[in-house]
Amino acid sequence: MLYLTSDKFPIFIPFGVIGFYRYFWYIIRILAFFAYRPVPLPLNPTYVASEDVTIIVPTIDAGDEFVEAARSWLEGAPKEIIIVTEERMRGPLEQLAAAVDPRVRVLTVPYANKRLQMVEGIRHTTTDIVVFADDDALWPPTMLPHVLACFEDQKVGGVGTSQRVTPVGKRLTVWEVLAAFRLSIRNVEIAASTHIDGGVPCLSGRTAAYRTIILKDPEFLHGFTHDFWLGKYHLNSGDDKFLTRWLVSHGWNTYIQCCKEAELLSTMKPNWRFLKQVLRWTRNTWRSDLRSLFKERYIWHRFPYVAYTMVDKLFNPFTLLVGPCLVIYLITKSTKAVENGGYHLPWWDIVLSYFVWLLVTRTCKLLPHLWHRPEHIVYVPAFIVFGYYFAIMKVYALFTLHETGWGTRAGVGDPTEATKAVDNQRQPPASSAGAWPQEKEAEMRRYDPEAVAYRRAD
């Protein structure tokens, strides 16, 4: 490489500095990942799943995978499972629920809107802890005790878990392997950030637990269902990002229980529709991170390392695209005669050197996944290609943040109409199943006022 760059070596120094900077922080992240420790189970737990946990599952098209998922949830012995769907799906889901367990209850909302469905479940919850789960999330039997262990710290308001991809069919497709690569990298990142400063960019909506007292707050319910981008575009997806930001801006701590005992299995789109999922997630990340960094700003002093990772991700697609641009520039120079300023190596040598560098560095980043699934090493080139597609897609997503549709699900209602339904909906009477016992209000006094003071974000 020195021979390649000997003509005008100084122009490569900035790129070397960027590379050193990125891999320096990557090493820090790896060290923090190995230093991370999950919260151990308490000898005398404050919270017990059979008394203190309600699982809320918003869905519109639950299939056979729902039955398998529900049975995995029930192995943790929650007090109740609430399935919230739209009215036209009540019959099929009640049949599925009856086939699973009497603890599974089905509620409906007028419109297929995830946030509206979550709020309906919250209104009918009487336990101290709410766990939101996707309708295809498979849990180990040890999930709930290990999640509840984190709530022994009374300042913790939300808990997330590590994740792994399970195939829709008999084996993982290339799209599912790409998703598995992304999740393995994410597991490292969230464990590292939890160890470094206790924060996390997002408690994933696939499975996350929260204190019910936070979700019952009228200010939260209003903000959750009246969430607009630029005050104009009503948001339906991105609920997990909103919840995480709410915890940060209202003084609550978060924790990621990253261990096999709390690792969920989730399906991903096994075909090109996975790209539409990623596009929706990317838009949500742009919107949420920009708000967190520049509007609310609590993240800077509460979780500075997480703030750094957010800033890094803002510039990441642009810095990633610098590499191929530089290679194209070198190829152009190499095709000219040496006397006209050409380089000593032929263009194919430049391309080969660059690809080998990418192959080695990307394989290193995927080692946590490849350690358990070494046969997936054949997909590393596909992951490299996907990385550059993802960088371009992130730039595209930045300029299309006004598009708030779900993208992969038909039948999801207009969020504005759904919000009207929330505004018109009355709180359940004190005698109903959805009432929040008055004695729970006294629970607020148990917490550190400075840690949980409810204040309106900027």
Automatic annotation (TrEMBL):
Locations listed in the record: Membrane
Alphabetized Pfam families for the sequence: Glyco_tranf_2_3 (PF13641)
InterPro entries the UniProt entry points to: Glycosyltrans_GT2/GT47, Nucleotide-diphossugar_trans
Transmembrane feature ranges: 12-36, 314-332, 376-399
Matches recorded under CDD domains: GT2_HAS (cd06434)
Compositional bias per record (Basic and acidic residues), positions renumbered to this chain: 438-447
GO molecular function: glycosyltransferase activity
GO cellular component terms listed in the entry, alphabetical order: membrane
UniProt entry keywords in alphabetical sequence: Glycoprotein, Glycosyltransferase, Membrane, Transferase, Transmembrane, Transmembrane helix
Keyword Glycosyltransferase: yes
Record region (Disordered): 414-447
PANTHER family reported for this sequence: EXOSTOSIN-LIKE 2, SYNTHASE CPS1, PUTATIVE (AFU_ORTHOLOGUE AFUA_7G02500)-RELATED
Entry protein name: Glycosyltransferase family 2 protein
Lineage: Eukaryota, Fungi, Dikarya, Basidiomycota, Agaricomycotina
